[in-house]
Amino acid sequence: MTNCRICNNTNITTLELPKFKLDQCSDCGYAQLSKYPSEEEVEKIYKDNYFEEKRGSDHINDSKMKFEFVEKFIKKDGLLLDFGCGTGNFLKSAKEAGYNVCGFDVSEYAAEYVKTNLNIETKSGKFNEDVYAQESIDAVTSFDVIEHLTNFEYMVDCFKTWLKPGGYLFLTTPDIKSWDAVVLKKNWYGFQKYPEHINFFTSKSLRILLESQGFKVEKVKVWGFVRSFEYIFTHWIKNSKVQNISLKVLRALHLQNIEIYIPMVDLMLVAKKD
């Protein structure tokens, strides 16, 4: 990356990490992998088993928390699209609350799961602006998606096409300048998602991106996630001996399924189409 894709700044630095390198803009903070994974590598990542653990209780409660936030901004009489819906945790919460919903995911497996088990209209495959009619959607949610896509600018452009004037867009993504990223530096949890995560945003870079596409950013806040103790110890402790001992203690004390909300890693952005 010689020029920043977000702000066109030419002052790009390289961040050396154990498994990969990042090119980062010195102005808006946007960063991307110096080398994107191939299509073959990407296809290996998003197999059916990628979605299995996301149906756990902690992920379901995490989606409920997102819905409770989104619900403050939108009305029930419109159509809500969850883009990158996975196996439908968020859609389930919204449908149960009486909202008219539909979903989209790159995974045919995930889309079929949502259609079969939740009876929610869901499309899959490669997206383009013709997937939904122009100005047919009242609100779009896209949680932890933008960091995965090589063509994220086009995704935002599609959202603008599909949304009605005054429609809302909700995004979450890891914030490379979050408090925990600043403290942990190269050991930041956000860097452990390689090669799934290929883009890294800041609140400044996302604001520039959305405003350049005709959105008005209404809110940016620290977000986080709900996870069980077992998930945290399994995914965050890399030393296998320490991990095994910790998990044995958790299970002996029957604490493994306790869930907590951790306000770190992610940011939530709310934008409105002008």
Automatic annotation (TrEMBL):
InterPro entries the UniProt entry points to: SAM-dependent_MTases_sf
- GO function term, MF aspect, one: methyltransferase activity
Tell me where on the tree of life, at the top rank, the source sits.
Bacteria
Q: Which Pfam families match?
A: Methyltransf_23
Tell me, what is an example of a GO biological process annotation in this record? methylation
Query: What keywords does the record list, in alphabetical order?
Result: Methyltransferase, Transferase
Identification of the protein by name: Class I SAM-dependent methyltransferase
Organism the protein comes from = candidate division WWE3 bacterium
